Amino acid sequence: MKDIINKRNEILGQNIIKGLEKRNMKGFYAKDKEEAIKIALELIGEGTSITMGGAQSVKDLGLFDILKNGNYDFLDRDEAEDRRAAYIAAYDCDVYLGSCNAMTADGILVNIDGAGNRVSAYCYGPKKVVLIVGINKVCGDVDSAISRARNTAAPINVARFGRNTPCAQTGHCHNCTSPECICGQILITRFTMIPDRIHVIVVNEELGF
Predict the structure, then answer these.
(1) Degrees (nearest 5) of the Cα angle 50, 190, 26?
(2) Vertex 115: Cα angle to 156 and 39 (nearest 5)
(3) Is 24 in a helix, a strand, or coil?
(4) Checking DSSP bridges between strand 128-134 and strand 102-104, what pairing results, if any?
(5) What tens digit of pLDDT does each residue of 73-113 get?
(6) C-alpha to C-alpha distance for 164 and 22, rounded to whole angstroms
(7) Residue 12 and residue 135 in contact, taking contact as beta carbons nearer than 8 Å
(8) Are 99 and 208 in contact (CB under 8 A)?
(9) Cβ-Cβ contacts under 8 Å for 27 (sequence gap 6 or more)
(10) All domains of the chain in start order, with CATH
């Protein structure tokens, strides 16, 4: 059964790559975590300046520790004395590393953010964006991808951050305007005008939320 699932996921991954290509983005399919790390490190390159948001997928992969302890100019926002300064410095990094809250099977990326620093860096600023996306985040269309971002990713992240919102109590989105809401910005990336900037590695693993 596992071989059948892997075959299906590989076919899905190849179709996602085709979808990304027509949207001026580059896609890669990794059969496991080890292959995903190899692809990511080749895309990043040693000696580069790199930062990231709070992407759990990157940490699940083990890539966070590799970059922080390796030959990279790694900007860790969680260790910065001035968080806002770290956010601004991120725009001038060589690489911004992250994930997606959801994506469609034809290559549209969907992300939801509180302050907007992560999604704004995806849009513009860092020279290269490398996104690690587990196969569990692939959805059929934009509507289902937005629903996943709001009803799966957001409630889990709210619980992770210890915030008090309606979704923390029920596990699903209430379209709230709570002071602690983390759903301030929703970014749909359906195309990029800058070639060779956004790279998406689809991994045959469940990563992140």
Answers:
(1) 50
(2) 65
(3) coil
(4) unpaired
(5) 999 988 888 989 999 999 999 999 999 999 999 999 999 99
(6) 41
(7) yes
(8) yes
(9) 13, 16, 17, 18, 19, 20, 21, 107, 199, 200, 201, 202
(10) 2-203 (3.40.50.10420)
Q: Which two tokens stand for residue 74?
A: 């790694």
* Phi/psi at 198 (5° precision): -95, 125
- Cα–Cα distance measured from residue 138 to residue 176, given in angstroms and rounded to the nearest whole number: 25
Rg over alpha carbons for the chain, rounded to the nearest Å, is 16
Q: Which tokens go with 168?
A: 């923390």
What confidence score (pLDDT) does residue 161 get? Answer: 87
Q: Residue 83 to residues 19, 32, 79, 87, 89: CA-CA distances in angstroms? A: 36, 34, 8, 6, 10
Cα–Cα distance between 209 and 74 in angstroms, integer?
Answer: 24
pTM of the predicted protein model:
0.95
- 48 CB-near residues (< 8 Å, 6+ apart): 72, 73, 93, 94, 95
